[in-house]
Each structure stands twice: as C-alpha cells, then as structure tokens.
Amino acid sequence: MATITLRGVTKRWGQFIGVKSLDLEIADREFLVLLGPSGCGKTTTMRMVAGLETASEGDILIGGKRVNDLEPKDRDVAMVFQSYGLYPNLTVWENIRFPLKVRKVDPSTHTERVQRAVDMVELNDFVHRKPAELSGGQRQRVALARAIVREPTVFLMDEPLSNLDAKLRVSTRAQIKNLQHRLATTTIYVTHDQIEAMTLADRVVVMNAGAVQQVGTPIEIYDRPANTFVAGFIGSPAMNLLSGEISEGVFTGDKVRIEGLATNHKGPVTLGFRAEDSGISTAAGEISAQVYSLELLGDCTIVTMHAGGALLSVKAPKEFRAVIGDPVHATVSAAICHLFDATTGERIEP
Amino acid sequence: MSDTTMRQPFGLRIASVSFLIFWSFLALFPLLWIFTMSFKLPLDAFSESALDVITGPITRERRGGISILDICIAGAIFYAILKVPGLFGRRAVRFFARKRAGLAVLGVAYAAWLYVLVTGFGVTGPSVLGALFGGLLVWLFGFSGEDDDEGGLLGTLLAAVFYVLAAGAGLWFVLPPLLSAVDSAALQIPLVDYLAHPLIGATTEHYMSVWFDRGFYRNFLNTMLVTAGVTTVSLTVGTLAGYGLARSTSTVAFWLLILALVFRALPHSVLVTGYLPPFIASRDILQPLWDAPIIGSFLGLFTATPPTLYGQPVAVIAVLVSINQPFTIWMLRSFFQSIPKELDEAARVDGCSDMEAFRRVIMPVMWPGVVTTGLFSFLLAYNDYLICSLLLNSQNQTMVPSITQFFNSETTTTDQVQAVAAAVSITAPLFLLVMAFQKQIVSGLTAGAVKG
Amino acid sequence: MRRQTFWKFVGPSIFLMVLFIALPLASVFWQSFFHSVPSVESVEVETCSPGFPTQICETVLKSRAVLDENGRPVTTTHFVGLDFYRSVVEPDVVWQAFSSGNPAAILRIDFWRALRFTVTFTFITLPFVLGLGLAIALAVNNSTARMRGPIIFVSLLPYIITPVIGGISIYWLFVGDGIVTRLIEAMLDRNIAVMTHGWAVEALMMFYRVWHIAPFAFVIFYAGLQGVNRDTLESAMIDGASRFERLRYVIIPHLLPLIVFVTLIHLMDSYRVFEEIVAFNAQSQRISLQWLTYDFLQPDDSGNRAIGRASASSMLTMIGIVLIILPVLRRAWRDHRA
Asked: Which ranges carry the ABC transmembrane type-1 domain (chain B) (predicted)?
C-alpha cells in the first residue's frame, strides 16, 4: 500500500518560488503524470518526493508516513533519470544489482532478482557491457531495470523518454505502461510531452509556473480544459483560442461569427475549438478568412488562417487543395466550442 | 585543421615548423646540457669547446665511456621497459586490484613505511598519523575493481609502483655488468670490436659521490617522505572538499572558493613568517594540551613531551598540504563538476548515504581527476624550496634546498660537477613523470582554465 | 546538498586552511606591531678564585635571561607601533631622496629595491609569456598531428622542472666560463663576464621566467584553440578575412577569457618571484619582495631571526597581492550578485 499525499508543499529558492502550495493525493497503484512546460515545477515536485530537494513548507507523506526529514535512501522510492544516471564504471548487471548491494539485501537472492529484472526489460544479451557500449534505448532499459529490481513502493520517472528518438519513444512508452501494470506500483511520471501524458496516465496533473492548473483523467483534461493554459497545452495541434465578444449566445470577433452558444454570458470572452472538430467549406462558414499556409499531414490537411486575433488551424480532408491567399471558410458548430473568461482564462460553464 | 580549406601557404608552414624546432631546442637545451656535463670529468665539463663537453675525450681516456653497442643495448632495454606496461599492464593491474593481493601489498608497504619512520626518523606520532591517513585513503578509494576489468585506482597504483621499483632495480643491478660483459666479449671479435670501443666519455663517479659520500640519498628519502605525505593528505582532504563545493550552490560555497583564490595568491614567505615563531616554540605552546587530563594522556601515547615542530617533516607536510589546499580544491571541484549530478542522485535514491554515494559511485569514476590533482600536489611538494629550507633543519632537509649546499661550496671544479649531478638527479624523476603522465598534466593545466 | 553534509565534506579542508593560512596571517599582522624579547635582568655576580693570601673576588654586572618557575625564559612583549614598518620602508630616507631631487637614491633601501625589481619583473615578463605561449600554440595547431605529442612533451619540461634547478641550469650556461658565455666571447672576440652586470642578471632572470611559464600559457591556449568554432572561421573566410584578420577577429576574441586567466595566474606567480634570486645567486644585485622577507627570516650569526621586520615586509607584500586580485574579486562579486 503506497499512497502519496502532498499537503501545501512549497519550494522556494530565495525570492524565487518553484512550487506554490501544492496539494495532491495519489492513490495506491496509480500512474500519475505531472505535465507542464519546462520550469513549471513538475520536476521539482518529484524531486521533493524523492528527497533530492527539501520542501520549504508543507508535508509529504508516503504510505501515510511523513517523509520530509528522511534521506532519499530511507523513502523506498526508485527513480529513473532523464539521462539515466547509470554508473559508467559498472557493467549492466552490476548497475542493476547496485541497489540490492547497498541496501544489504541477502546476497543469495541477488542473481535471481537481477535476472528477473533483466528479463522484464529484455536486456539478456547486454549484461556484461558497460553503459558506454549501449544505445540510448538500451541505457533507458537498464535504468528501468535498476528501478524495478528492488520492488520499491514508489516509482519516480523524470522525463525518461526525452533523450530517445521518436520511434523508440513509442515502443518504450508501451513497455513502461505494460511494466507499471504488471508491477502495480504507484508511479509518478514527469513529462513535458502531452502525448506521453495522455497515453500513459491514469490521471494527469497539468502544472504551470509552480501551480496546478488541472487534475483529471486524460479524457477530462482533453474534453473539459479548466483554463486557456490547459486548453492551449493539450492536444496536437493545440486548441484554437479566439478573442471576441459574446452576447445572447452569439460570439463575434475579427472575421468570426458563431451563433447558438448555450450561455447567458455577456462581454469579452476567449472562445476555443479544436482543429479536428471543425471543417472547411468553400461556400460559407462561421469563419471567413484567407489561407495563410497549408500543411499536408497525409491523413488530412491542416489549413491555417488569421482570424479572431490568432493564427487558427482547421482540419480539412486530405484532398483539399488551395493556394496561399485563397479565400476560405471554416465551419465551427456551437456545440464543440469552449468558452473562457477573457481576463482570468478560467473556463465558463454554460 | 588540416583539410583543404585551411591549407596554409608554404612559407608560413616553413616558418611555423622552424619556430617549433627553435622552441624545442630552447626548451630542452639547458636540461640536456647539464645532463651531458654531469657525466664528464671537470676538465671536459668546463672545456673550451662545446664538442669536447659532448664527447668528453679526457673522460674517455681516463674513465672509459660508452660504446655504440652499449647505446644500442640500453636503448633496446629502455624501449622494452616502456612497452611492457602496454602489453601486460592490464593483467598486472587486475592482479593487484584483487582484494587479497592488494591488501597484502599494502600491508607490506605500510610495514616498510612504519619501519623507516620509526627507525630512520625517530618519530612515532607522525608514522601513526601517516598510517591512519593511509587507511582512510584505502577506504576512500575502495577496491572498486572487484568485478570490474579495469582494476580501479589502487590496482593501477600498486602495479605502477611495483613496476617502477622492479625496473629501477633491474637497471641498477643488471645493466652495468651486462654492458661490460657484452663489451668485453665483443672486443674479442674482429670488426665488431670497433662498435665495442668507448665512443663517448662518461663516468658516473659524480653521482656516486653525491648520492653516497655526501649523503644525498638521505635528502632523497626526506623528499619521498614529504611528497608522499603531502600527496596523500592533500588528496584525501581535497577530494572531500572539492566534491562538497562542486555539489553546493550556496553562497557559503561561493565565498569559500573566493577565499581560496585569495589564499592561492599569498606569497609563501608571508605564511612562513607566521609559522616560524610558533613552530620554534611549539613545545611550550602545546604543553597545556599535554597537561590537560584526557587529551594529554592520549597525546602522551605518541610522545611524552610536546614536539618541537621546527625541523619536523610532519610539520612541513601539514604546511604544504594547507598551502596546496586552495589549488587542490579548485582543480578537483572543476573535475567533479564534469561528473553529472544524476550519478550521485541515482546512488542516493538507490540506497546510499551522501558519504557512500561519494565513495562507491563518484570516486571510481573520478580517479583520472584525482591522479591529475595528485600529480600537481606531488610537484608542489617536490619543487618547493622556500618552505623546506626555512622550516626543516639540515638533517631532515629535502633534495631541492640541499642543492644549494653543493652550489655554495663550489670551491673546486669537482664540486661544481657534483652540483650539476645533484641537479640532474632531482630533474630525472620529473622527466619520467612527464613521460608517463603527459596527458594528465595537460588535462590538469586546462581544468582550471575551462571555468575561467 | 544539505548544509550539514556540506560541512562534513568541506570541514577538514577548512580546518587546515584556517589553522595554517588564516591564523598565520593574523599572527603575522600581530607580530608586525609587537616586539617580543626575552626579559633580561642584571645581576651582580661575585666570582672568586683561589688566591693568596685571600681569595680574589670580583663582582661583575651580568645580564641573564629571566627564567620562570619551570626554567623557561620569560619574554616580554610590547607594542612598537609602526617601528618595524619604518625600519623596512625608511620614510626619512625616502623623504630626503625626494626633497634633494634624487629619487633614485631610494633604491639603495632594500625594500624599494625589491619593490622596483618585483614590479618590473612582473610586468615585463607578462607580454613575453602571452606572446610566446600564443605563438607556440598557433604553430603546434598548424603542425601535423604526429609532431604535436613530442612538442607538448618537450614544452612541458621547462614548466614541470623544479624552478631552482631550471634557473640554475640556465645560470650555468652563462656563469663564468659557461658555454653560452664562451660562444658570445668567440663572436665578440673579447672577454665578457655576464654575471657581473646587474642588468644582465635581471634580464636572464626574466628570460628564465618566460622560458618556465610560456609552456603553461601554450597548453592553455592550445586547449582553447581546439574549441574555436569552425563555422565562424569558415564564414570569416567566406566573408574574405585574411589569415591575420581571422586571428585578430575570431581566434583572439575566442581566447580572450583564457588570456585573462593566464594573465591573472602569471601576475600572482611572478609577483612572488623568489627562486630566481636563489638560482641566479643574485641577492647582491637584485632582490624581490619575497626574497626580502626570506632574508629577514634567515637566522643571523647569533641565531636570531628578524621576525618583526619580516612580518612588516610581509604585510607590505600583501598589499600588492590585494591590488593584483582586486579586479578579479570585484568581477566575481558582480557575477555572483547577478
């Protein structure tokens, strides 16, 4: 049983605030992803859980026990680092065995446990090599094996895929998901890549500037972003955000007019919609502008245009053809629109 | 930069190559010249003609010399000595890295060191301290080579020391009789005998009289004692501090480094001015410690009365270590900074305390930096003139200050050549050092500059 | 790293530096203002020798050291103000020299003589060290890879060699009938004695220092040259920069931090010039500040060391060091605050 609780956790360096009064409950066996741009405090949060940074304020509890004053070695957590942190002087086998050795685990069990970890990450052919003789993906797997070998109560992963190439990233992602499922260990995973967050997480915590923006399942976060930051950060391409005025259910902005919005709100707002929810029409639509550029993605074409004070992307069928500068219309139905407060950026519920 | 885009005009190439040749000549000439002089009788060494100094006709006539055959044989042996580590080095290192072999060798070495200290220098306290520091060092570096084919620092160190001792003993005891035997045999054979005739006059008599008649070996032992002490202690203390400073971002760490920079700039004579009065009077100053109830009885185990620090190698070791600390911690810090922080963090999450992480994870990957810094500590202690000459008395004097004794008594030309021989004796180990550790010295010199 | 761990790692080093650097410094400062002498008392001693008809007795006044109850000599210490400084600097003579319109006269005082030599030595050698170091680095960088190893090896020797020994080996080339002196004599066709001229000894000491330190500058610059951005060099070439212009506008600016570094190290080290004086046996002709202190510390014929004057000259030497590193400290402080 390892739940993790953060209560009012704050990290300060002099005047600079890295993490602002963070509250978080992580359930046992949960796969929680901390997502946000670089410098948002997600890595700091995880390092405080690991004990590599001390929290300036607040309590950190693992399995109901306050661990603020414990050394990392006494918290029973395992961590996978961004650039792996493998011991260059030890072979793969010794690297994986190292946690058992320093924790004085009964030596007679070492071989069996290391072998099990090696099997899990499929590194059998490389156990006698040094880290320098391995590829990035193999090093990644050694770091994973080193983390799982002693069956800790908590896994911490700090952008473990960011140093891999795109193709390897996809397969290792699947491997991590599978491992976590089999081992059923509470996991905190830090990333700035929203696709990783969406594919891996049970729950996602979106952070920005040291504060939590939204906590929820990937679907919740995708379907009902809590503010413009989350809306703009999740999804590829990101949600289009237009500024304009709303009154009596009609949104008007530069080259934009959307009718039939189910809201009583009045005044300046930000309206958001996703490229894949909208369409292109040659006759008429809610948005009328000129083609700014075209991006052929294979399965579809993304058309961008200037309207509503922003550069919008709209999804068009792959056979759509136009020349830059052609007039074009985009259809945006009122049902798929999200409304945000123009000043605070908070979501306006209909 | 040697591809076509960077090709240089012919004139520039000639100019730069000839400049390099000129510089090499300039760098080497004074050293080669005293080397040549030291093997000649005074009449040759101070001859009018440079050619006579090199060939030494009078020396050849009176004392004999070396033949072409000798040069070839000696050259072959030296070549072999240089090549052997490359061929068998790994195996030897692995042997010495094994726990039992390493400990055995270490034990013998310590016993020998203690013996020398106790009998040769009559001081027990320092030897106990030395053994303690040695033990600390062994613990610190650990036997990292356990399951590891590199062999670790200790294995390399022991193998190197053994090799140097064995090669030195071999050269000393085997080479001269071998050469004379080969020469006398070759003289019997017609045609070949020409090669066996002495060609260049050479004699080692000046070295013999400097080292044995005038007791230079004692200065050599003192130098070894001081340099060994300075290198081990300053590395032990310096690696800890360098690591701490490299991993800390606090303001305190910043000010410590700045303070170290200021200390680095101090003229040594200023410090010696501070040491001399308390060192001479240390017996009185330390008396209260010996009179104190508990500490006193503990200290009494080493010496019954407080020591007079003036003239003691151990005091000079402490002084040189401290003076060297600023430089050592700056250099080690820049080496430690090049080791990713994730390594010790991974170790700490894996279950190590700070100290364990340092010892088990950082030290094994750090030893190139430690060796480099150790080299510079060695050089500082070995080359020091000012501190040793002021703080050591003549019987504990190291090599460099004692050379002035030959130098100032240049009454006869023989004395002068003996001074030259002593100077060459001091230089020879440094020459070998540069040969063996050229890469480390270069990396050490640049380590400080990278961070500016 | 937690504060406690930090002190655990740094502690031993700080302890040594405080005990053997900071404390001695403080004590030197103190010693330069206080004079301690063994207390002496005058006692009447009657010595009698057997004589006839009566013993012959003599009463003489003898001074002897006062001993405390443990039989150790008692010393008294009193504040002497700037006396030691005065005896080192001799302000009266300086004043006289300036008022009589003959400032050169102050060079007869050891301290001013040492200061004059130390400062000229430091600043004259600097450009030569930088120039020679840069020249070797550029030449080695232009040479084939096969030449580099041996040249670096040869270059390291003057730097690694014990300074006193390196100095002596050059001294021997010139002293008396040294081989270079012979060569010059053969060329000029007359007898010369290099070591009798103060300026010649000074020049030789400077030559030695450049010979000794230039390799260090070379190694640093050579390492820096490996990091010159090739794209920048190539774009400079495409822009039409000549070889010299590339050196002037691309390579030198790239090396500038290293040039500053070498300059700083050289200033600190050559301000401490000392071994040259020993090696070139130059104390009668040229002395340096550090040698001055060393000389005060040498026991005189009766075994006394002029600790007070040594302390005063040490403190005066320190002022120079502070002036040299002040710009560095100011820059470090600015960087740290930024």
From this structure: 220-437
